[in-house]
Amino acid sequence: MQIELVVTGPIQENCYIVMDEATREALIVDPGDDAPKIMAAVARLNARPTAIVNTHCHFDHVGAVEAIRRAYDIPFYIHPQDQAVLENAAAAAARFGMTMTDPPRVDRFIREGETVAIGAHKLAVRFTPGHCPGHIVLAGDGFVMAGDVLFAGSVGRTDLPGARWDVLSQSIKTQVLTLPDATVV
Question: Residue 102 has what pLDDT?
């Protein structure tokens, strides 16, 4: 399994390309902006994207979804409780002085306990609301893609619409801190 970080947009959001090295199948996680930059990383890796999964749908995480979806003709997955956040992403971007096109269409909702396959590998979906109502993390073998549940030295914001500190702290306790100690975030 190879994981490539692509930092995107003015907010410097983290997008990840998670690839099975044997099959070159790849999952694109949180394509927030800079679609050409993400596609250049896909080309450099010689990856074959099979889906887009978002940990949550704040505007800084979904801005490049539609361009990536069209370029590779792949589906877009989110947790159902983030649909309203996705529908309001353009308005949220405007509040920060940024523009965003209409939100992308969701192809499939994913839920707690499901897995997302990448070649021979599987990522477990763990429901982690608090920063966003439908936030998920994706746990693989020895790593977790935490979205905005965790930041370097901190945790996700809880001053945004739909965010709650008590819910986020419970999510971290039950879904992140229960992962093995050696888990890389």
Answer: 79
**pLDDT at residue 71 in the model:** 97
Q: List the domains of the chain with CATH numbers.
A: 2-176 (3.60.15.10)
- For residue 86, the SS3 value is helix
Q: Nearest to residue 108, comparing CAs of 86, 79, 140, 66?
A: 79
Question: How many angstroms separate the Cα of 170 from the Cα of each of 29, 34, 123, 138, 166?
Answer: 24, 33, 21, 17, 6
| H helical segments located in the chain | 35-45, 59-62, 65-72, 83-87, 89-95, 165-171
List the chain residues with pLDDT less than 70: none
CA distances from 96 to 10, 60, 91, 104 (A): 11, 10, 9, 20
Helix spans in 9-163 (H) = 35-45, 59-62, 65-72, 83-87, 89-95
How far does CA 73 lie from the centroid of its chain?
A: 18
- pLDDT tens digits, residue range 27-61? 999 999 999 999 999 999 999 999 999 999 999 99
Give the separation between CA 185 and CA 180, rounded to whole angstroms: 11
- Please report the pLDDT score of residue 171 as a whole number: 97
